[in-house]
Amino acid sequence: MNGFIFAGNYFVNMSEIEKTSFYGTSLTEQHAKHELKVNKYTPINRAELEPKRRRLLGPSEFWGEYHTQREALDVAFQRSSSSLHVFVYQNSLGFRKFIVSHPEIYWQMDKYKPPEERCSYEVIPDGAPCHLYFDLEFETDLNQLKNGARMTKTLIDIFCAYIAEHWDLPCKRSNVLSLDSTTDVKFSRHLVFRLKNVMFKNNKHVGRFVKTVCANIRQSLFVDIHSSSVNNILKNFSKEDVEELFVDTKKGRKLFVDGGVYTRNRHFRLYKSTKWGKNSHLTESSDSEYIPSTKYRDKELGTFLDSLISFLPDNRNLSLLEYQDNGSVDTTEYSKECLSQQIQTQLSLKSAESLYPQIDKFILDIVAPGKIRDIKVVMNNQKLMYNIADYRYCANIGRQHKSNGIYWVVDLQKKIAFQKCWDPDCAGFKSIPKQLPLEVHFQINDEMDSLLSSMPEPEVCPVTTNNPSPDIEDDDLDFELLNIQINQSKN
Ligand SMILES: [Zn+2]
Asked: Rounded to the nearest whole angstrom, what is the distance from the C-alpha of residue 11 to the centroid of ligand 1?
């Protein structure tokens, strides 16, 4: 797993050129100067010294860039004591990058970008505690008489009433941060319910809660709740207000609440970010009644931190709200140890498996009785690097090395595998490639498709087609792997 930890430092080196074009030169220079300063104090292993620095100087300065979400989430979990968070952005060339950093550091980098390039999202990690959040929207031309601001207020009041009823917690409009990116054609808001020392257990519980309340709202239109004897929270709201929450869409009439934002590892747009090419940034709604519970000297930073759905600063008094499938509710105390243990177990099970079990087996058969120590996804998801343990046969010298190990590289595009070597004498060597078995080809094609389909919807972050991914040369691979090697030997 060490490869993951150092991957962060390494990707920063690799991506300087892209960062320059993305953040602008001056900011990249600033960051480089800062890096230099940090490295002066921690010339050998920055990671080891990090907790001490954080206590002395504020948030962790860690900054890692990754091509895959899995890698980024793993790194953030492994360093969860540093309150790191996973963000995703699309750069000016249309590539997506996953960033692991403390939110305060991310904000400092993000706020200097040109507005049209602020296209960042928070990753809401599967299983992580999160606040109640909403994505509200409707098309203006289909709903010209609708008052979105009033509808938002009604919705907030309804959910506050349910929270009070289920968990006996006071909840008011002043607890709800309302962000707006409405345009001429679309009403669009994000809501974040910020209850002090309270979060939901994870976004599955949020999703169940939201869906159940929305179902009640729909039902209330067909049943005359006001004259029935059944106790119903919605009795406290006028029928007109509740009815107004339904909007016309091209697919019929429905609630203006997007029920699709509670899926695994969901991406949720950041404060001051825009959908790519839309130039409509999320800002605080003019009618927001939100009162922050923590005051920051930098108000913008405060709003940014409060807008994060799943950012969890060290908080030992945190209570977690649960909403089960059968509608039963509960509150549990958050236990960091327990949570990280659970996540660690998940991680260790996955440590030496890739997305392609058949390729893993193919490599294992070649290197038997050796094992796969770890697998890295490199070159923009196009290659897999298998670090091998307990087996050092190198085709370059025709025998086993005494101390240096070997690794195998799988090229998913060309569907071949070849051996390379960590021994300096074998630098640049590449064995005669082996074709991957035919049955693996289908799985690769399938996986490539599903990788593409897991990307944000094209209208959110379209991949720029006039800037195709450059051809990956083996020289680049060598450079990339060399960096990994250097970082591993530091360890
Ligand atoms: Zn060798």
From this structure: 25
**Mean pLDDT lowest among 111-120, 127-136, 159-168, 462-471:** 462-471
State in Å: Cα 402 to ligand 1 middle.
10
What does the alpha-carbon distance between residue 16 and residue 34 come to, in Å, rounded to a whole number? 14
| Reduced 3-state DSSP string for 287-339 | CCCCCCCCCCCCHHHHHHHHHCCCCCCCCCCCEEEEECCCCCEEEEECCHHHH
Cβ atoms 289, 174 nearer than 8 A: yes
- The closest alpha carbon to 114, from 180, 30, 29, 21, belongs to 21
pLDDT higher than 90, residue 469: no
For the entire predicted model, the pTM comes to: 0.62
CA of 412 to the centre of ligand 1 (A): 23
Q: Name the CA radius of gyration of the chain, rounded.
A: 25
What value does the mean pLDDT of the chain take?
A: 77
Nearest residue to 314 (alpha-carbon basis) of 202, 206, 197: 197
pLDDT tens profile 348-373:
434 356 777 788 889 988 998 888 88
CA 422 – ligand 1 centroid, Å: 7
Centre of ligand 1 to C-alpha 432, Å, is 14
Residues in the chain: 491
